[in-house]
Write a structure and sequence with these properties.
Blueprint lengths: L2 H14 L8 E7 L12 E7 H13 L10 H13 L7 E7 L4 E7 L2 E8 L3 H12 L3 H10 L125 H30 L6 E5 L8 H9 L3 E3 L17 H4 L5 H7 L1 H4 L1
Parallel strand pairs: 3-6, 6-7
Antiparallel strand pairs: 1-2, 3-4, 4-5
Helix pairs in contact: 3-9, 4-5, 4-6
């Protein structure tokens, strides 16, 4: 379409997709770069907002004695930040960006700065705080402080739970495959299973010879002598002197207290979890499981449409819960890291409080993305 045709068509698309009860809206759209010049379709991103929300934002900017330059949607702001700070590192990768805020979490999927799928879920850091406050009967302020200072997702959460599968959190993982219907349709061979049926190799036609219990095993030898069966010098042919398969009773070994225990070089070190950390984690675990399940649902949906995910990146104030990015990565089997929105930016530390930039690396991604508007437009 040319510009005029696209404008007319997009007005029809916007009217068809207004998701608000308020009819007075502000909208805009932008065609995306076409990766396939022979494609018959155009990819366009559009944004729709109630007029009242725009008026509130402009009023807040004016109260701060500033002049608004542009109003944008959060997914595109995040895309600018990723392109500026991690463009080379994320080049050619499909990144799932999880921005965990106070009440909601944005799950957006990008590739080379291009927004492929936006989604928002009603799960945020507030739900974790509320779980602590309700369970421990604490005010919201104290529960928030406890969350930031004492709460942590232990390294054992989302790890391997033993042979046969991994605990992936939120109901995921893998296990031994089974077939629907008859459970006996899939019976893998287990060499350690007890069986009363003698094993006969396939194709073995050798007859099984059963000794006659009434027969005298002590027949005359070639020397013509009849051996005495009671003689200890004569071995019984049905009691071999050495049975390699016989089970022998061995005396239990008594450990020598003066000797150090043998070291198993293949043994995995046991993770030690602080009891207080484990107690707090059990309180917030249902919220985290729901959160991970929503992220997994987004990833699975994107994969069902033919895409794939290279890594997960987490930002937002809720993502600063200790161990949360690592937990999400273990649960989904993907690399997951916290986001640094100040990467490759020159920060004048003289104008901010000491440590402020370090503390807000994951909070200011949308603000930084909006500020980068001047470099992209």
């Amino acid at each position: 379409m040319n510009a005029t045709e696209l404008r007319e068509h997009m007005q029809w698309e916007i009217n068809r997709n207004i998701p608000f009860s308020e009819s007075n809206v502000v909208s805009d759209y932008r065609p995306l770069a076409d990766e396939d010049p022979n494609s018959a379709n155009m990819e366009v991103v559009m944004a729709i907002s109630p007029q009242s929300a725009i008026d509130t934002i402009i009023a807040a900017i004016k109260q701060a004695k500033k002049t608004p330059a542009a109003i944008d949607v959060e997914p595109l702001s995040i895309a600018r930040s990723m392109t500026y700070s991690f463009g080379e590192e994320f080049q050619g990768q499909t990144v799932c960006f999880v921005d965990m805020g106070h009440k909601t979490t944005a799950i957006n999927i990008y590739r080379d700065g291009k927004l492929l799928m936006p989604r928002q879920i009603p799960v945020g850091g507030e739900m974790i705080t509320k779980a602590l406050a309700d369970h421990l009967n604490l005010p919201a302020e104290e529960a928030e402080k406890l969350k930031m200072e004492k709460c942590e997702v232990p390294v054992t959460a989302g790890q391997d739970t033993g042979f046969g599968g991994f605990d992936m959190g939120g109901g995921g993982g893998f296990s031994t495959p089974t077939l629907a219907g008859n459970e006996n349709e899939f019976q893998p061979y287990n060499p350690f299973a007890d069986s009363n049926t003698p094993f006969t190799p396939m194709g073995d036609t050798t007859q099984q010879i059963t000794p006659d219990p009434n027969a005298n095993p002590f027949q005359p030898t070639d020397l013509g002598a009849i051996p005495d069966p009671n003689s200890p010098a004569v071995p019984n042919p049905f009691e071999p002197t050495h049975d390699p398969f016989a089970t022998q009773s061995m005396p239990a070994a008594t450990p020598d207290p003066t000797q150090a225990a043998p070291h198993d070089q293949y043994a995995m070190p046991a993770a030690v979890v602080d009891p207080e950390v484990e107690k707090l984690y059990q309180i917030i675990a249902p919220v985290l499981d729901e959160f991970v399940a929503e992220v997994r649902r987004s990833v699975d949906y994107f994969r069902s449409r033919g895409g794939d995910i290279s890594r997960i990146v987490m930002a937002g104030g809720g993502s600063k819960l200790k161990g949360l990015p690592e937990f999400v990565g273990r649960s989904l089997g993907l690399e997951c890291d916290g986001y640094d929105c100040f990467r490759r930016l020159n920060i004048n530390n003289k104008k901010v409080a000491p440590g402020m930039a370090e503390d807000l690396r994951q909070d200011f991604v949308v603000a930084i993305g909006n500020a980068l508007h001047i470099f992209f437009e």
